[in-house]
Design goal:
Blueprint: H1 3-27, H2 30-50, H3 58-66, H4 82-85, H5 93-126, H6 133-156, H7 160-183, H8 186-204, H9 214-232, H10 262-276, H11 278-296, H12 301-319, H13 329-333, H14 338-361, H15 372-403
């Protein structure tokens, strides 16, 4: 069996399934919105470069923007049947995973380098003694390689608790390396970076590992494929794929106060689906990033634009749950009508998005009294976005019923 050809065939098959939907994404106006955002960002960034604030925390900005270099994920295209049919080839699977590992690091490294190139003009204008660009690029590539290697070793670890500890350690490692590089001279930071990198590599050898963690890799592949399908579901109805279930006890209060009646049954199901799937994690990360960026740009019109952008992104994540249980057999057996499910879903997205509309708006108040009028108009715009989302989802629900 040619394992490299098997991987290529599976990758081609997956993208053949995805490509037909991309036309609908472009027709939705996403390309125009993206172009507008890029033009607005270019105008703002050019203005910022021409008038760089004296106390701009450029080191913190570099650290915040580049810390995702620690992120690690891989597309293996494994399926449930591989546990039976590919397991006899386990001793040869390194040839299969070599390409997976290379792609998983390469594309993310390119993205990090693009971010570095965008930030570099601002960095050299703000820093008294900037680091050399070539050394910074080499360091970023080394950190990406180290994080990618560590992320792959985590997937092989037998102990789930150790896997979580090393995942946190991977982010801490990137934080320490980038922090040392931006804050300290190279002669002081480089020995420290080499020391902790070597220590990290030694620690990675200690946990007991599987040759191939079949179940975990298959679950990760379902989650990655499902994430892409959920993005496409913002624009067009697509088949639902599996997703990773995560226990988040600290979010258990969501839905706890609902009355036990038929009207609340479907909203309760959606709420628990939200808290236990990737949607909650993505929403939380977007909210934190949005709060930081909106607060940082609150004194200008870009703050209002970022507020509306992050509100839209968060809303798209929440409304993507519309298809979570559409094909569930149990919903056909329970005495809940389609109209009741529709109203429960609209109530769910309103109750979830409305607090975010207010919370994400609070950083705009730091713009001062002279920006109060614009802040109020921005909040009104957030309310309009919520109403438009409700109307759009109501139309989609009605269209889905007509198609059935």
């Amino acid at each position: 069996m040619d394992l490299n050809k098997l991987l290529q065939d599976r990758r081609a098959s997956f993208w053949k399934q995805i490509l037909p939907y991309l036309g609908y994404v472009l027709q939705s106006g996403l390309a125009a919105v993206f172009a507008f955002i890029m033009i607005a960002f270019a105008a703002w960034y050019t203005s910022l470069l021409q008038n760089v604030p004296a106390e701009l925390p450029i080191r913190w900005i570099m650290l915040l923007v580049l810390i995702p270099v620690a992120y690690s994920s891989y597309r293996t295209y494994l399926t449930d049947a591989d546990i039976v049919f590919l397991r006899p080839q386990e001793y040869r699977m390194q040839a299969y995973f070599r390409s997976v590992h290379t792609r998983g690091i390469t594309y993310k490294a390119i993205g990090m380098l693009l971010l570095l190139m965008i930030l570099w003009p601002l960095y050299v204008r703000s820093e008294v003694e900037p680091r050399a660009l070539i050394l910074s690029v080499v360091l970023l590539l080394l950190v990406k390689g180290l994080s990618g290697y560590g992320g792959w070793q985590e997937l092989r670890m037998v102990s789930p608790s150790l896997r979580r500890v090393f995942a946190v350690g991977r982010w801490v490692l990137a934080l320490l390396i980038l922090g040392a590089w931006w804050w300290y001279p190279p002669l002081r930071s480089l020995p420290f970076i080499v020391l902790i990198a070597v220590l990290y590599l030694i620690l990675l050898r200690l946990p007991i590992k599987h040759p191939v963690s079949w179940e975990l890799l298959i679950a990760q592949e379902k989650s990655n494929g499902g994430r892409l399908m959920r993005v496409l579901s913002w624009f067009v109805d697509v088949p639902a794929l599996g997703q990773q279930i995560t226990s988040r006890s600290w979010l258990s209060w969501l839905g706890a106060g609902m009355g036990w009646n038929r009207a609340n049954a479907y909203r309760f199901l959606l709420t628990k689906t939200f808290t236990r799937t990737e949607a909650a994690g993505i929403v939380i990360r977007l909210l934190v990033l949005g709060l930081l960026l909106v607060g940082f740009t609150a004194s200008g019109w870009l703050g209002s634009l970022l507020y509306l952008l992050f509100l839209l992104l968060i809303g798209l994540q929440i409304t993507s749950l519309r298809r979570s249980h559409q094909e569930s057999l149990w919903l056909q057996l329970y005495p809940i009508t389609s109209e009741q499910r529709k109203q429960a879903f609209l109530s769910f997205i309103t109750r979830m998005i409305l607090p975010i509309v207010l919370l994400l708006w609070l950083p705009l108040l730091s713009g001062g009294m002279e920006r109060l009028g614009m802040s109020v108009l921005t909040l009104a715009g957030g309310g309009v976005v919520l109403l438009l989302m409700r109307a759009s989802q109501a139309r989609r629900w009605a269209k889905a019923e007509e198609d059935e």
